[in-house]
Amino acid sequence: GENVEQHPSTLSVQEGDSAVIKCTYSDSASNYFPWYKQELGKGPQLIIDIRSNVGEKKDQRIAVTLNKTAKHFSLHITETQPEDSAVYFCAASWDYGGATNKLIFGTGTLLAVQP
Amino acid sequence: ETGVTQSPTHLIKTRGQQVTLRCSSQSGHNTVSWYQQALGQGPQFIFQYYREEENGRGNFPPRFSGLQFPNYSSELNVNALELDDSALYLCASTEAEFTDTQYFGPGTRLTVL
Question: What one-character DSSP code corresponds to residue A2?
């Protein structure tokens, strides 16, 4: 069935270091892969997304890579700052016939950036 | 801020009761999806509304129902509440014809006692 696995569940880094979060999806029909940041008491905030026709996308300190053959995608955050501390979710979606794709989320990664 | 608002922020109900949660989508967005997020988990898709019609449903029982209004705002109704319904309920809106990107509201925290 539809499944997205996310690792690690927790990640602690020193300020200025890089952080990498990895996800694996099960359905080869998946074609859209967003990443969301969720701070305590708030809804998920989109930080970057990638579509299946692109292998890599970068936005300032954040980058996402996609390996369709292995069904892996990863989030890379460089020069981490304390305000990057939050829970990060990956998600995968595909055209299931609805108006827009439903998102299947990973279980989340709690990122702690130590000053 | 995404422009998606939800009300109430939080509420407490008892088992067996009914609840209605509300979502106001971002201006111009005609599609609303509802998700349930249990503590420590990722959001799970409940259903989607497009131009006032249900347009896809996840693995949730019929006691979860919804509406979308002509202004594209939406309601989630849950009947016969169970303890396991305690969660953060999120709505996300998008303009389906143009993008896959979904913008989430802040959520409603429901506690069932």
Answer: -
